[in-house]
Amino acid sequence: MTKMAQVTAGHLDKDADWWRGAVIYQIYPRSYQDSNGDGIGDLAGIVQRLPYIASLGVDAIWISPFFTSPMKDFGYDVSDYCDVDPMFGKLSDFDAVVAKAHDLDVKVMIDLVLSHTSDQHPWFQESKADRTNDKANWYVWADPKEDGTPPNNWLSIFGGSGWQWHAGREQYYYHCFLTSQPDLNFWEPAVQDALLDVAQFWLKRGVDGFRLDTINFYTHDKELRDNPALPKDKRNSTIAPSVNPYNHQEHLYSKNRPENLDFLRKLRAVMVPYNAAAVGEVGDAQRGLEIMGEYTAGDDLMQMCYAFEFLSGEQPSAQTVADVMARVDNEAADGWACWAYSNHDVVRHSTRWALSPDAQRLFTTMMMCLRGSACIYQGEELGLGEADVAYSDLQDPYGIEFWPEFKGRDGCRTPMVWEPSNQNGGFSTAQRPWLPVSQDHIANSVAAQEDDPNAIIHHYRRAIALRHAHPALTKGDHDGVKAIGDIVYFTRSLNGEKVFCAFNVGDAPADLALPKGAWESIAHDLSGADAPVGDTLTLAPWQVFIAASPST
Ligand code: BGC
Ligand code: MG
């Protein structure tokens, strides 16, 4: 048996439902661990740190892109889907990640960026050569209007028109992100086949699933109709910062097209033999949950969609949490969300929501109780805040474009901090890592927290362990989701196990009448309240009550 076949074979016996309720740890590989001193994190660095990741109790890792790339969007611009960029290592290093993760019983999800490629991808190089080559139709090419302007009003999220002129073809091509990230044309069957081959390539190499970048952006309107303007009172900035005119449109024709479902069905069929799971990133400020409902319905599409509801600027109130859950029930009754508070695109939530340490802990516990799967972003388990990155150190083209009203995404992408003793926090031996290590972070390094029983890292471990100890919390249904004042509460249940969860997201004590039953607290080690005497519960500010009822 070849080495690769062994990796694959060992993993075919996994439970097809492994993703439901899973806790997924997101690694931004440039900033996790640098093993070769070049100032950039790499795959060998991830291998070194996998025992740490496993010690958190997570089910899976999602690794942001490590494929060959000119790195204009730091790997979200792929020039070879089936190889590793030399700065991250080689394919054999990826095999080592998979082997080590599987030894530790951690699943591996990779980030497939299928909506667009880099302009350096050989497919684009060929496509742009003329209008008649074999790949002439692989990207979204269009003639100018009579007056020479772009074919329609579609915008790029990274600023300006979504259309870039190409003198060679005397045509525009569409790019929803950078001009160096041309969108693939999903109307071309050969494009879909090539992308399905990419998925197959990695499944054969042993991956357990995918995070699918911008899954609702795949297909565009064939007639290239203009997007309608979005009235000012309907605009919200969960996807793009408020200073971005991208928020001024309803993206009716440039994304969310019904034809996406056909491709997703084909992709799922490729995944089935491997019991692989996918979480599709649905970026849409208005219709996100509705699209989640469409894409996760039944069992022939995606298992999960990654939701933006808790990535927004405002700290969720009790009512917001209840409303989001009610909308999921209405709009995605048959579906499954994957929640996140932080990722490589948004300001870290402890800063974004200006959380007190107690509030931060409560939201962690809450995420482990919500119906859905959960993503934790590297460093979140250390309670890290957003790093302050000077303009002169800025790397993110998005931040450079909109500075200073929007500072881009570098503040959440600075390197992970492992030890307090070293200037780069144990991330790298380089003089200057690709982004500076935040000196504010160093006191909160992993090593410093491991030695402190009160540190937040242990809270994350306990919250994750609580979820795993109760199948109702992992895979169960939820009902009775309600907010009264600052308390949000609900019951999770599965096969007779019932878990009642209540959270006081306010600064004052609050009372709650408990549902009937004998409730026994299971969250003492998460500063959970004791069971009340009688049936009224008083929760201190930022206190939780999580309790099991013996099965009836
Ligand atoms: C990724 C971003 C990336 C964009 C374009 C997003 O949703 O998370 O980091 O810039 O897709 O690929
Ligand atoms: Mg390196």
Task: Give a structural overview.
It contains 15 helices and 20 strands. With 552 residues, the chain is an alpha/beta fold. It has 2 domains: 3-114 and 189-467, TIM Barrel (Alpha-Beta Barrel); 477-548, Golgi alpha-mannosidase II (Immunoglobulin-like, Sandwich). An 8-stranded parallel barrel has the order 1-2-5-9-10-11-12-13. Helix 2 links the parallel strand 1 (23-27) and strand 2. The structure holds beta-D-glucopyranose and magnesium ion. Beta-D-glucopyranose binds at residues 73, 76, 113, 177, 213-214, 281, 283, 344-345.
Q: What labels would you give this structure?
A:
552 residues; alpha/beta; TIM Barrel; Immunoglobulin-like; 8-stranded parallel beta barrel; 20 strands; globular; disordered N terminus; binds beta-D-glucopyranose; binds magnesium ion
Task: Determine the strand fraction and express it as a percent band.
Answer: 15-25%
- Report mean pLDDT, rounded to a whole number: 95
Q: Rg, please? A: 23 Å
| Estimated helix fraction | 25-40%
Low-confidence stretches: 1-11
Question: Which ligands are bound?
Answer: beta-D-glucopyranose, magnesium ion
Termini separation: 51 Å
Briefly note the structural class of the backbone.
alpha/beta
Instruction: Enter the CATH topology name of the largest domain.
Output: TIM Barrel
* CATH superfamily label of the largest domain: Glycosidases
Morphology: globular
Which strand order spans the largest sheet, edge to edge or round the barrel?
Answer: 1-2-5-9-10-11-12-13
Major sheet description: 8 strands, parallel, barrel
Number of domains: 2
> Could you name the CATH class of the largest domain?
Alpha Beta
> Counting H and I runs of at least 4 residues, what is the number of helices?
15
Instruction: Give the tally of β-strands.
Output: 20
Question: Which CATH-level-2 architecture of the largest domain?
Answer: Alpha-Beta Barrel
